[in-house]
Amino acid sequence: MRNLVVIFVAVFVLQSCGHSVTDPKPFPIEGVSNSIKVGELTIAGQPNKQALGTLSGLGYKSVISVRGVGEVKWDEANAAKALGMEYHQAPMGKPLTAITDMHVALFNEAMQNATKPVFLHCGSGNRAAALWAVWLVEHKGMEPKEALRLAELSGMRSMRVLAEARLDKLR
Predict the structure, then answer these.
(1) Can you give the pTM of this predicted structure?
(2) pLDDT of residue 17
């Protein structure tokens, strides 16, 4: 009987180690394309200047951009900071041919340091959602199939190939 209890507790602990995330839901914000909310994280396309003000008014504390250097034609970092939000960058330039260790490390650092709620974006949400999926697996212990499903619901499209390639290397 004691062995059964030990086995039950071990199974329960192992099952609870995986990172649980609620299903993403559309979260329309004027001036932002493809905005999807997942708990205290919103994944979307590039916000315009007015949308940053809206996000600040909604209580967002941090912005994480995965856009490459030079992709944004205005000073998003200073605009976010002027609104009282933190600004973090984990650049994934174009053309993107792989999700690298550096991408994942910079994103993990941003996620660890960002005050919630967090607004995560790239140009369309595609790169941001793919990087988030990889991060969920590598840093939160989520099963790859579930992470990819959530990322697709959050805007990942063509970058799925790169997310899968990265995750296949872990198997």
Answers:
(1) 0.88
(2) 45
